Each structure stands twice: as C-alpha cells, then as structure tokens.
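Backbones bend. We report:
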Amino acid sequence: MNTDRTIGHSTNLVGLPTDYLGTVAFVEAPRPVHVAGVVEMNRPLFEMLDLAEDLEEAGRAFSAYMRAMFAIDREQRESGESGPKRYLSSWLRLVAGWGFDSNGPEGAVLKGWVESRFGIFPTWHKGPITRIGTGRWTTYVEEKMSSRFHSNSIMTQLDLLYEFCQWALHRFVAPGVSHLTLHRGVNDFGEHVALQKIDKRHAVVRMNALVSFSADRDTAGCFGDTILTARVPLQKVLFFSGLIADHPLKGEGEWLVIGGDYPVETSW
C-alpha cells in the first residue's frame, strides 16, 4: 500500500488543501469546513433550522425540506400513470445500504462523495486500492457512478446532509467542542494502513474515505476484538445515529466519519 498521497487528484469543494484535510495536522487543529455554495443556496432550510428548539425538531424540519426538494416520499409511495413505482435515489437508501454492506454499491457512492468534496480517496473497496487502474479501483468507479443511485441529485442530497449534520453538532450535540472520542472495532488491520507506530498502544493509521465509528466502546467491540479509539474533529462527521429520529442506522449507534490519517489508541 502506498503511504503517500500521489493517488488520484487533489481537488475538492471545501476550499482547503486536500493534503491538509487528510492529515494528522487537520485532526489536531481542524478549521471550519463547508461544501461550497450549499448553505448559501439553501438559506430557507437554515433559517428554518435556526427556529428549532431541539435536535428532534430540527430533524423534522430537515426531513420536510428534503421531501419537498427531492420528492422522495411522493415518488417512492405512488405509482406512475403508465407503469410501476419509480424509486428515486435518496440519502436514506445510501445510509441503509451502508449499514448492510459498506463495500456495496451504496458504500461506493458515499466514498465517491467524500472523494469529490474532500479529495480524500478510498483505500479499500472490496479489498485494498493501491492505485488507479487496478481491478478494485475499476469496480469502485463503476459502482460509485451507477445510474441506479445517481438520479435525483444524490450528491446535492449528501451535501445537505453534511451541512445539516455540522449545524446540528455545533448547535445542539457538541457546542463549543472541537473533537469527539469515538471507537472502531476491527479484527485485523487489512483495511487500515499503519503509517507510524508510536508505542505499543498508539499509532497513526490511514482510514478509508468513509468509516463507521461508535460513541460507545462496548458497541464497537461487537465488530472486532481490537478497538481503535480516535479523537475525531466535528468537521469529519457526515452522519450520526441521533441526527434524525427515523433512519436506517438507529439501532446500531453508528457515526459515519470521513477518513484520512488519524492518531489512534488500540485496546482489546
């Protein structure tokens, strides 16, 4: 596995260098992150959110806005005049698919969003991705670009999800806090590139473009015998289980975290 950042491009849509966003330097000293134009082009959403008295009310407002903008509910409930139901892509379906298999097509689309917006490339999709042009890279590209998921402005939906998540974290969940302590259970380090061993329990690892964490160490232990504990900047969180009352990952307490290089503590 290459440990430099020569794979792929270095462009992104958040206005900070990719070589900074994906490094320990960003983890230790994060700066504000916004996807270009999303807040400015959706002022009614954020004006509505500012009226919410708690996270539950804000979640309902966000869901209502997404239904109105992308007709997700109407299109998925009603049959067309000349044929069967037409299911439009929605961020909810991607999150549900991620919960079933993060290496599936839905996972590829989510990793592709991270690549597009942050410039952080996946290191794993059905196996290690070491360079562009390999078989696994081709599979990843085919799945992330599948027309099955790219109707209904799915990338814009994910942009809005990220910005709402950031708003919720800073407003209700962790105001005044820069980092969250999260845990990830693993059975081996095949999906994690070890960059530096600091001592027996501390190391720097390169996480995949998008990875699942848990706020509860015992829950993380259900997914692997080795627990990786990291201080995650709020800016690296795309979604968490308490963000919206009704969503596919509610029972698992997952946090979807944007990858890159992280200092971690290992325990068993």
User: Anything to note?
Assistant: The two ends are 25 Å apart (CA to CA). Strands lie at 179-186, 193-197, 202-214, 226-233, 237-240, 254-267. The mean pLDDT is 89.
